[in-house]
């Protein structure tokens, strides 16, 4: 980033903070509004107190001075100013020149619109959280992986299934290389999380029940890929090669989710997939 760009970002950040501060009513954050306030919103010292930072430091930031700020401070500031997910991301972009850490929020469901889009996809589709918890699926996914609704919520997880489900292991070829790739991608996602607590808990549980996971995890490999090819063996039709892509989706409430869509490769895989999923697709 050039010096001119940095100055522009600092100026924009200063104006953004002032506008967000003016928008928050004292009553919204547990403070007394009083009758002697000459301007709307919070005072600088109130924002500083809520964000647990010195008044001078916050004032410099709001004045557009060239100071370095940490991720924990920006997270506290976002909460103090009651920023929505888009505003939080904008704050990080202006202050640090990069997106904020990804939040690992596990939703109970997805929006009706997303579920409808998923349901009309003729082949398997899954919606997962950044921690790979499965929160939505379509009928073809049930045929391929089983009904996630019948599993305990804590076990509706891609990584957990890969290492603890005999059905998943039997149907995935070659299982070991696929499992190694999953572990490497999961490690990368864990490193990006704003809070690793849920990720580390899953790692600890899998390390207890799966020696293979424990061994793969200790290798510290990382991998990033949003698409690939996966071979699944189904007892009714045989091997189907699926191409898959993963798309990032923000729900209306700001939760970050991933949509993974599968499509059979042309030829015999397409023929077998149409036979397998024909009864549940429209």
Automatic annotation (TrEMBL):
It comes from Cystobacter fuscus. CDD domains: HTH_XRE. This is Transcriptional regulator. Residues 12-88 form the HTH cro/C1-type domain. GO terms for molecular function: DNA binding. It holds the Pfam family HTH_31. SMART domains: HTH_XRE (SM00530).
